[in-house]
Amino acid sequence: LIELDRAHLIHPVASYRGHEQQGVRVLASARGATVTDASGRQLVDGFAGLWCVNAGYGHDSIVEAAARQMRELPYATAYFGLGSEPAIRLASELAERAPGDLDHVYFTLGGSDAVDSTIRFVRYYWTARGEPRRDQFISIEMGYHGSSTVGAGLTALPAFHAGFGIPFDWQHKIPSPYPYRNPVGEDPQAVIAASLAALRAKVEEIGPERVAAFYAEPIQGSGGVIVPPRGWLKAMGDLCRELGILFIADEVITGFGRTGPLFACSEEGVVPDFITTAKGLTSGYVPMGAVFMADHVYQTIADGAGPSAVGHGYTYSAHPVSAAVGLEVLKLYENGLLENGRKAGARLMAGLEALKDHPLVGEVRGRGMLAAVELVVDKKNKTPLPAEAQAARRIFDRAWENGLVIRAFANGVLGYAPPLCCTDADIDAILERTAVTLDQTLE
Ligand code: PMP
């Protein structure tokens, strides 16, 4: 398999880089939070695949929901006014739970095309409002907004830009709120004030009449689980409203229980103009994303007919099997999974906090079942691990040998996003294997 993989399978490069020598690790099966590789070795999955298998693996009720839908009606286009019952029901169930007036749901295949769709809808919105010159977009350093051509330009991770001729000149960035490494220090109010000032200044610099929208993740995931202070998201949203620009919360990672509730925006008291989601929506069993659109945006697009009346969509938009899975997963969230995630998240955070005194641990941060340990070589000066020495890759390898799957970001941050179904024993295994891995890294 490894040879065939090398010869024929193209992996997403940014995550594969550094793993070439060893080749791919092939997973064979999984149940709960445990994955089994092709040689029969079991590991605890501390990252829920790619922050997505929130319900855990091997859920028979999800499999049955998919199988039932495949038998009944495996495909129905969402085009030409056609539809399917699961897609309609899922949209309505989700709209009921989304913050504020985010009552309209546009299904995609994943997160990248959810973000991509918002870019198109934002442009369409401003054109419909008679302001087509509002075509400039702002996002945040260290942010991730997918890998479509334009979405990757909002993404601010260099690996996604190099060689692609992006970002485009209409895509602007402001600094990350990153409390641990913020030039203004870690004080929450100072961090919030710095972000507000940066957004104001950027809008001024671009020209206030040219700015279309601002994108933010409630917690920056792929940048290394960067957790802004409480109140930051609300403050940024309020400023967008004051400046008259649209505000998009990218909840592809934070949505569906990762930080506790179904939407991180809800616990922050924020009602953006759009929310993008994917991953936990179907818990990774089948691909699907969803854009939530505020009523005032919907009413403006195509004169109140909404996006159904504009030229944007996919063959697999609102796929019935994905929607059936989404409905089943939503049931699981509300029948104990969110609750279990909150409990397991508290255990995970407490356990990681206990590692704070380890000589390599610079900071422990997180919310719910989304956490990070930032490793440093010098705690006082917060000196990062040397990226060029591929320290992160070695930590990933060591953790793997210890029976733990975690994400090791290039900047020496260890990322945790376990399935919400984790038992106490699963969480304890993650913590114990992390401690062993850190000690080995010190050696
Ligand atoms: N936005 C955010 C915040 C993400 O974390 C991701 C994926 N990690 C995406 C968008 C893109 O989602 P996908 O990989 O499903 O296209």
UniProtKB/TrEMBL annotation:
Keywords per UniProt: Aminotransferase, Pyridoxal phosphate, Transferase
Gene3D superfamilies the UniProt entry points to: Aspartate Aminotransferase, domain 1, Type I PLP-dependent aspartate aminotransferase-like (Major domain)
InterPro entries for the chain: Aminotrans_3, Aminotrans_3_PPA_site, PyrdxlP-dep_Trfase, PyrdxlP-dep_Trfase_major, PyrdxlP-dep_Trfase_small
A Pfam family: Aminotran_3
Cofactor list: pyridoxal 5'-phosphate
Entry superkingdom: Bacteria
Alphabetized GO MF terms: pyridoxal phosphate binding; transaminase activity
UniProt similarity note: Belongs to the class-III pyridoxal-phosphate-dependent aminotransferase family.
Name of the protein described by the UniProt record: Aspartate aminotransferase family protein
